[in-house]
């Protein structure tokens, strides 16, 4: 683990490396405690004329065993090796030479899960962003591309499976119970894409033939006995490969594609060339153990990692400031893939909900940073929702501005022009400018200017002139001060609707291109002519720009859009806004002690939506789900009292349930699924509708009977978990809840991954008594502080999805949180830093909680031995 503090990395300091490493040969002699790594690097001076006399390579916690150049051991004074770096001071003057380094590492002790480590007895690696330097000394930076040849030697009994990147080569016996396998990856790659896996694993195999007829062997490796649970992931992989050919013309480029599922992993998955390593949570699924949401995530993440083969691997990043080059673009691609596989409208709504719940608070708080940052202390802390999700939104806006065809032409040009490169955001944008013959310089501000843009609109209709004026003003929440902000180019897809819901014809003003308003000034008016009736405006359709929109729409306007907008996203948006307004009003009432009431037309709207068979069930489920407590907190923005928010939301849900019980009951029954389980969009939509209704009906009943019934009858995990959440969250003290929790625990006692769901449900029971419950669960045999999935299921859920308990007024939630974050930090700083972001919005809390939160952060930040990862987050949060 790196321990030096205070180093700040800046984009402006970027310099190419002095040397290139065209080839890298690695030999691994695997041993749990003493693995020997022999690395032979062919080094080439980038500029043979330059007077470069020393070579500095990065390391992290390494023990150097030997070092030689061109086969000759180096004299002791020819180099300096510390755990964190290797400096060779005497170099041959030749333009190229070969450097051989032998290091020893301890995979068993590696609990940070970066570099080479052991998970359930199997060896695996994680090298992004800077894990390769924990394996050997190297130019561990993404712009140094090398062709890797790898030889793995290991005990045959413990490690029958030996995998690395690229295509398989020789393999054989070594005597003494050991064997070897060789791998060669012909595609030059940066060190962060290196991977090795060795262990005793089960496998499922399949094949894919690429568009040009090349056969590819596919394999997914999982723990023995879990092979069947990888079949859906394999299906998703094949669909991903086909989709990337059809939609982006990207064909796979090796003879094999391997995926390995491991149970200890810091993130979701990793796109290592030809050898993707996955958190097992995103591979394993069957009807009895995975929910529909799990299936959808598996499909999305399998797609995401596969799509990286072109956007990330064939074209990688010049430096880590360019992270969104691969991540934003690849998220955009996986979103499109999921939209094509399922319902586009439902997918878009889900994306926007995620963006608002996670990215908006980040961008509006102390951890706000541009999509393309220009400074960081710890790159691991920049795998953020801004880089990923806002980065994807920026790509989506490019498509909106260019249109489908020019966008595809820009992508084709980017892929062709930069294949084999370590590229930058400028390269990416230039490809679209050149393909579409467009100037995107103003648009590029989206990459550089942080904060959530806010657009305030007002409208006026002049009956006699037949003109409709739309006045737009831009500002931002978070990011640079308003007077220093430059106007963004904001693409707003829109429509003007007539009273019958049809799109009205008009003469468009300048700056309007078809259905897109290009809003490019701090303030601007757009005058539409030729309108004989007052139009009803639908704007930011499909959430064409990732902004906060302050409109002047009244309830009637929203109800109209909810019923008639041809844009499904904006129908949902109108419903969501109505619910948000009702909730905000109720929070105000709750704070003054007034009785909570909700407009009857909102309550009946919910009934109408549920009954509207022309809407797909998944859409209805989303429309029937009120904004989350976190969304409401963000919308209110200051002086947050989580108890008032909770009270308002549950009161609204109970009122909706009671007002529509009869209708809901009917719809619940009508959407029952007969026949075998399928994790497809249609069935999962019905299940989600039924389960939203189950919650409403249970609130209307005021008792656990219905949810208990459903839990007992459920044949799949989606329904079982939904029923269990209703029981635990609505009736935590009921006997039925205790019974069902025990039954679940018993059924999955030997499957910690499934038990995570059980932990998560209990960690999110509202109310401060959950603090004690979480403490008790930390002593459960299935819990482990060393496994990130376990910690996230219990502590991550508690701190990020349980507003009332985490923010308990007595501070007990924060105390527990600080204990766990500190403990995690001792072994796994990345995990600790990710948990710590749960307190990033502390400044919006009411004063008592705010002070307790600040103190908690300050104490954690002052702790001696706090990792760079964690202190970077804490310091920025407090700044
Ligand atoms: N590139 C991966 C994400 C990832 C990043 C860092 C990691 O290190 C612990 C692991 C994975 C992706 O976008 O899927
Ligand atoms: Zn990615």
Layout of strands and helices, then pairs:
Elements: E1 9-10, E2 19-29, E3 35-45, E4 55-58, E5 63-69, E6 72-73, E7 79-81, E8 85-88, E9 96-105, E10 115-119, E11 122-126, E12 146-155, E13 161-164, E14 167-175, E15 178-189, E16 196-199, E17 202-209, E18 215-222, H1 231-248, E19 256-262, E20 269-270, E21 275-279, H2 292-307, E22 316-317, H3 323-341, H4 344-364, E23 375-376, H5 385-402, H6 404-418, E24 422-423, H7 425-436, H8 445-448, E25 452-462, E26 467-477, E27 490-497, E28 512-513, E29 516-519, E30 523-528, E31 536-539, E32 548-550, H9 555-564, H10 568-592, H11 600-611, H12 617-623, H13 629-636, H14 642-659, H15 661-670, H16 681-701, H17 705-713, H18 717-730, H19 735-747, H20 752-763, H21 770-777, H22 788-801, H23 803-806, H24 812-827, H25 829-836, H26 847-862, H27 868-878
Bound molecules: O-methyl-L-tyrosine and zinc ion.
Family: Belongs to the peptidase M1 family.
GO molecular function: alanyl aminopeptidase activity; metallopeptidase activity; zinc ion binding
Domain Peptidase M1 membrane alanine aminopeptidase: 232-443
Give a concise summary.
GO terms for molecular function: alanyl aminopeptidase activity; metallopeptidase activity; zinc ion binding. The protein is α+β, with helices and mostly antiparallel strands and 879 residues long.
